Each structure stands twice: as C-alpha cells, then as structure tokens.
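Final report, closing paragraph on structural work. Over the funding period we assembled a curated collection of sequence-structure pairs, and we close with a single example.
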Amino acid sequence: MAAIDLSAAPFHLEDGAQAWVQETLTSLSPRDKLAQLFILLSRDAPEAALDSLRAFKPAGITRIYSSNLSAEIGLINDANSVGPVPMLVSADLEGSRMSLPFGTEVPNPLALAAIDDVETTSAIATIMAEEAHAVGLNWSFTPLLDINAAWRSAIVSTRSFGSDVDLIERHALAEISAFQASGVAATVKHWPGEGFDDRDQHLVTTVNPLSVEEWEDKFGRLYRAAIDAGVMSVMSAHIAFPAYVLANDPDAGAEAYRPAVLSSLLNQHLLREKLGFNGLIVTDATPMAGFGDWGPRSEIIPQSIIAGCDLILFSDDPTADLMHLVAAVADGRLSQERVDEAVTRVLALKAALGLHKTDREPLEPISAQLTLARLSSKEVAKAAHDKVPTLVKDTANLLPLTVEKHKRVLIFSTGAVQPFAPVPLPLSLPDLLREQGFEITEYTPDMQVNIKDFDLVLYLLAEETLLTRQRIFLNWRELTGNVFGAMKRYWHDVPVLMVSLGYPFYLHDAPRVKTYVNAYASNEDMQQAVLDCLLGKKPFLGKSPVDPFCGSDQAKY
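Its predicted structure, as stored:
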C-alpha cells in the first residue's frame, strides 16, 4: 500500500488515532472493507433506513432529514452501532432551500457573494455547521469552487460564489474554516472545475475547456488554496479536462474527455501529486448520467476506485455495486493495495472527526433543539438576508413602491421551482404586499388582462439552481399560459418590476424591462428582505457577484 502520512494535513492524526486506523483496517473483513467504500443515500423512514444500514454496513450516509427531529437523532445514534465503524453522515449544506428542515434559514452562496463580507460568510457557515453537528451531521459536500462563467449554466448558478476568482477564494476559505472548526468536514467541488460548460453533469459529462495555463490561474489557484487551508475532502466530478490529458498524451483521442471521477491522470497525477492533496477523494453521485455515460456499472464502479477515488457516492443498487468491486478484486483490475489505501483514508477522515473515540456522548434531542432554536442564529441570518437584495437597474425611477402610486398590482409568477417538488411552491411575497395595503391580482392563464386596471405589473421569478434542468430561462409561454400572452409586454403602458428570487440572468430574456432586482434565493427571510427594499424601508446593499447583463449593453438601459 502506498504510504499515507496520517499525521500530515488534512488529517493531523495523533499516534492513538493512527493506531486505531491501522487496527481497524486490519480487523475488517474483505467484504466490510469494500462496504467502507460507499456512501449511501438515506431517505426512508428511520426504522427502514436502519435495516438497510444493518444489511450493508457502508462508510456512511447522506441523510435526507424528515421534520421529526427526535426520530432522526435516534436513527443517527443507532446507525453508529450497526457496522464495524461509526458512520459518516453527510449533506449538501448550501443554504436557502437546501437548509435543514429544522435549521435556521440562511442565504445561499451566491447571496453571500452579493454581500461580500467574509465575516458574514463565516458567521453563516458556523450556524450551518453547528446546527448540522447538533443533529449528527459531520461532513458537508461544500463549498463549491466552481466559477459562474457560462451564465446559462443551470447547475452552477446560485450554488457558486459567483464569477470572480478572488471573491470565490476568500468566501470558500472562510466556509472551510468555519465548517471544520465546528466538527464538520468540508468538501471542495466539483473537481477539476465547473462553470465554463453550460450543461449539467446530471445529464451529460461536462467539459472544462480551459488551457492548462488558464486552469492554473483559476481552478488551480482555488484548489491549491483550499488544500493549503486544510480542506479534508475533494469531490471528483463527472467533468473532463481535455487540455491536461492532451498535454500528457497528445494521442489520447476520446480518452481526453474521460471524466475526472474515472481518471487516474486527474485524480492521482494532478490532484495528489501536483497539488499535493493528502485527504479523501469522493466521487460525485454515481447515478448521474455524466458518470453512466462512460460504460456499464460493472466497469465504471471499480474504475472510480482504481482511478483514485476513495468513496463512491450513492447507488441505486448497493449490493450489485459491491459485487462489481468483488469481481474487480477477484480478476485483478482492483488491487487489494488500492482498496486498503482508500479504506485507510476513509478511516482517517472518521478519526479526524473524532468518530473513533469510545467516550463520545450520544446525540440528545433536547440539546439539538436548544442549538436549533438559538435566537442569535436567527438574528445573524436575518441581518445577512437584509444585505442581499441587489438593485440591478431602475432606469424608470420606479422605486420605492408606494400604495399611493402602485396600489393595484398584477403579478405574474413561476412560484418557487424546486428540483424534487412536483409543482412549484407558492411564494409569500404576494401576501406580504397585501398586508401592506396593495391590491394584488395573481395572473391565471384564463384571465383577460385590461392593463388600465393596474398601476404596476410585477414579475416574480423563483428558480434557484436546478438538477436535470438543462436550462433556466424566462419561459414567457409558461409564465402567461399561452402563446399570445407570451408575446405581450406591458412596460410602455404601466410601470413594470421584475424580481428574481434565484437565477440572476433573466435580463437576457427581458433586456428592455426597466426595473430589475436580483435576490438569488426564495426562502421566506429573503422574500421579506426584498419587500423591505422595494418599499424603501431598507436600502439595496447587495452587489452583483456575476454579470446580470449577460455581456449585453442592451440590458443596461
């Protein structure tokens, strides 16, 4: 087995912890070693979820929490005793609608970038980490180091810290520090760097099109900074980096487009040897098409470990995938040395998080509730939300809104579009406006609009980053319900305001709208913050972390 210095960054294990890693590795059966290479998605009710864990004994789970806090804490406590090693419990702590169901609502990364205050990002990350730790989470698949360069990307969009490398670096490092200081391992993703391809890895293997020199100036810099800061894990993604492959093998052909998750050159040579990363490499979710594009699972599941990943994220059929590893070991494709190396890093991450300690206290619902109910956390989050809304343009001098000038309001809205919700969720902003005395009419497709009946037309759009949505755009036909409504524009007849509570690039589809606001997220606190800014009760303090004009001067006027 290749020597791994467990005393070095990012694990920093003392002698006792190193001994535990080696003793545990030696004690595991060949089958249990292979099971330690899996993180499973857990969304069943606690009792059923526990049965699945007993049967498989994975390294850990990504838990989709229900709203039953006591039951969830009971599951985590029980899960730590069902296998030979305590569990990693992971989540994507990204804020906004990705917040824990019983946690404090916090801004998402793009919203934090609009504030651009490192202390605020640290405070929000600390809240997320402390609340996560209180309910048993010890690993987050954040922060993103992706660069919001291809503005049409629906998958980067609101999940990244924007398009400026300096800004991304300082906020990502702040989040890494805050997470790991609170007992939650951080993960930087999506290796080797996303954001210059406007497609979605869930649907296709995407491509980082940069030259090696360009990559070094951007993603190389970001990943080196994160590694120097001690980030514990890197997520190797379904992204190709052909320039690097071709620089090493000019005759690579199709292999230049092999995703990093299956590439020894990108994981072992570039990430480990060139950048010096000693921590754990986890695959991105393996049910994604960007992974499955590359072959049958019997080949690509073992190849992910052979190529240098230490953990396999998610499986639709864990037993079948485990058997693929067994077969690969049996026929020599996957060496026992490589298996032991991967398991060593899995165990080292667990030890670095203190999971090896026998005196760990079980989680307590009452203690968790006290952490989740902190008034100070809610105050910090509200203060952060108040700084996010960004006035992109108001060439009509429409704002602030007043009941005297804009009483009768016609609202066109998508609702809050969510990746796992079958229909959009209702927004609260219409009701908040009603409470302020505005007369609100919410458009329906069967409505005959007489624009003289209204003092303001308000477009409320709320689509944060979406999985498997190849594009986010202003779908006028869906918004209005028919082809004729899609072609109507009201801004020459009545004041018009467009507010995005998510995707920040709608001016590409509506460049002539004269008043436009970005708020990057659709959670309740953000909607209240937007209302306060629209009414002039609070100033617009957000600064755009991306180009909302999409490179077009037309949209500025």
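The first strand starts at residue 38 and ends at 42. The radius of gyration is 25 Å. We thank the funder for supporting this effort.
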